[in-house]
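In this supplementary section we document a worked example of the pipeline. Step one takes a protein sequence of length 119 as its only input; no multiple sequence alignment statistics are reported here. Step two produces a three-dimensional model, which step three serialises into structure tokens for compact storage. The input and output of this example are shown verbatim.
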Amino acid sequence: MPTAKPIAALKMLTLDCADPGTSARFWSEVLGWEQPYADDNYAMLTGPAHALGFGPVEDYQPPSWPNTKGSKQFHLDLAVDDLEAAERACLALGATAPAEQPGEVSGECSWTRLVTRPA
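The serialised model returned by step three reads:
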């Protein structure tokens, strides 16, 4: 049970990547967020309530799906109005669609498409 007063508020997530600029441009298009800052070492997007940062990691290897030898590291769950159109748009921006998909879940939450961002 959460405490009555939170200790902190989430303001920003920072993701490891090979190229901060490429990752920021991809997510800026997907989310429609502004990119107020980018250089070779860091890029940041700002959204309505949160920010998303991208930091380079030498020899970065993006997680694979399905990953039987490790963890997913991190993923974003997104809501879209038109699943097919959203998938096409993400693929056009450089995402890939793994052959194995997680499938559908009944109820309010569903995983019906998985696309991976450009590294």
